[in-house]
Amino acid sequence: MEHLDWLTPSNQKQGAYVTLTLASAQKLSTINLWNQNEYTLATGHSRDAKNIDVLYSTDGSSFTELTGHIMGDSNAAKTASSPYNGNPIQPVPIPGSTPAARYWRVRLDSFYSTNAYSGLMKVEMNGCVQTAGPTTSTTTSVPVPYKAIPNVCHSSSRCVANLDANIYDTTGQDFNVKHLDWLTPCNQKIDSHLTFMLDTTQKVDSFDIWNQNEYSGSNTRDVANIDIEYSTTGADYSYVKAKSHTLSDSNQARPNPKQTVAIPDSIPSAKFWRVKMKTFHSTNCHAGLMKVLINSKQDSACSAGTSINYQSVAANACYSTSRCVANLNSEQSPDFNVQHLDWLTPSNQKQGAYVTFTFASAQKLSTINLWNQNEYTLATGHSRDAKNIAVLYSNDGSTFTEATGHTLHDSNGYRATASPFQANPRQPVPIPGSTPAAKYWRVRLDSFYSTNAYSGLMKVSFDGCASNVPSSCSSSSTLPYTASASVCHSSSRCVANLQSTQSPNFNQEHLDWLTPCNQKENQYLNLMLATTKKVTSFQIWNQNEYSGSNSRDVANIDIEYSTTGAESSYVSAKTHTLSNSNAADSNPEQTVSIPSSVPAAKYWRIKLLTFHSTNCHAGLMKVEVKGC
What we know:
The protein has about 625 residues and is an all-beta fold. The protein folds into 4 domains: about 5-125, Jelly Rolls; about 140-300, Jelly Rolls; about 305-465, Galactose-binding domain-like (Jelly Rolls, Sandwich), CATH 2.60.120; about 475-625, Sandwich (Jelly Rolls), CATH 2.60.120.260. It has strands at about 5, 15-25, 30-35, 50-55, 65-70, 90-95, 100-110, 120-125, 140-145, 145-150, 180-185, 195-200, 205-210, 225-230, 240-245, 260, 270-275, 290-300, 305-310, 310-315, 345, 355-365, 365-370, 390-395, 400-405, 425-430, 440-445, 455-465, 475-480, 480-485, 515, 525-535, 535-540, 555-560, 570-575, 590-595, 600-610, 620-625. Strands 9, 11, 13, 16 and 18 form a 5-stranded antiparallel β-sheet that branches. The chain has a 5-stranded antiparallel β-sheet with strand order 10-12-17-14-15, with no helix packed on it. Strands 19, 21, 23, 26 and 28 form a 5-stranded antiparallel β-sheet that branches. Mean pLDDT is about 90; it is low at about 130-140.
């Protein structure tokens, strides 16, 4: 309704053009166009362009015709109305013989109707790949941001926006009453597909997929066989199969299991990826998926070492003096609170808003840790959380260079003091290895989770590169950590108890970490050390509340580590079977030795795998980390 298009004046559409001036001459691979999209073809009033020409110039005056292209009529496709298809991206490949140019022009030559007007909704340009990322494994694999485009959706609420939402919600991959999935219409599931357009050309190493998960047995809507395809241009005919894979039926399991599809190393880097559904686990007329993450191995600058404090911070604008940058380094909880201790933009000034951090000297960074604004939940439609951000650096404080882009997840208004007793999550942004040391670092807000007039951040911290970390320990001591949990039973039975000086025996104050009922499998504790350390062992005390068939003790655990803390970057260090404490009066300490081959790391995780009974809860009383 806001008519956010480029539209020609009446009866001036023939030969109308837009000229795009770049900062410098660029070699292009593709120009992506979105047609005008106002009216359907059937009305006879379509304002969509049909034939277009692309021209280029090095001086902005004399243009050379490069290529012609026939665009499809968008047929007024809207994600908010049936068939819930968005206005499709239409890529125009640029011939390889075309030189680099600073000025590019798109000219409208013919049209789908005699309507007096025409235009375009959006134009985007892709440059030629110089370094498309590593072709073999590097330091860490992280989820990369994407824009998802479906061929069909069941409805506007059961469509692609759900596929990468709420990564930190441990029930977010389970089917739920809000139906937050991508679902096909009835009898349109075969060969239906999702197209994923990455921000840049990437070397993709895996897809993490959660099946639809709504029903079990003969009524399941889960997908069986899929094809994953890729394209370097995004043109419909250009997709090539990268991998066929059979997904397991989730069978309505809670938690819905993550299914990882490894992409062969022989598959080249690409910007456009597609998941196509081929066969299914039942004859139910619908099918779909709950969640998709696309992982790419990124060359981080280094392993995260000690936290680095900045000297000063400034914002381009603040809502008020009390909701400004002084809050970003406070010792407060990163959960939004009644004191409003955040950085918040003024009304309608969130687009492109930024904060700039000045260090005492140039610093080589491994990670920037961000905590989103966190005031409102996503379901309210009023979320003030940022979605896409950019990190920039400078050595003079004047000219900034973009280091990386990153998609933050909506924190969903999580509070450690309220159900599901998860704190506002730390979201690590790995810094590419090619990024130099710099004195000035900037975080810019580029897109958002709602149309709320405000946005901002709760907290920002920086990890510098690890140095002088021993490869072995002559002696070990207890290492301090900051703990967070995937879930907690309540605010009083959560991670604060794990380092208490209490007895490790279960007691009437219930000073443990306990999971909610029926949420114990694959739940975990994240333990962030103060600096990168060589860890030698974990001392663990089991939950210890009950004995026998009612025990809440954990059996098998997996201890994992990460050098960046990125969600998909954790690697198993050791699996171990804990004994059942059986409500013993003296809860026994259980030592888990970490192999010497495991590298030093700052981020550690304890994941619960199996249990000593079918009690719906499980947990631990106390955890100590030993190392040097």
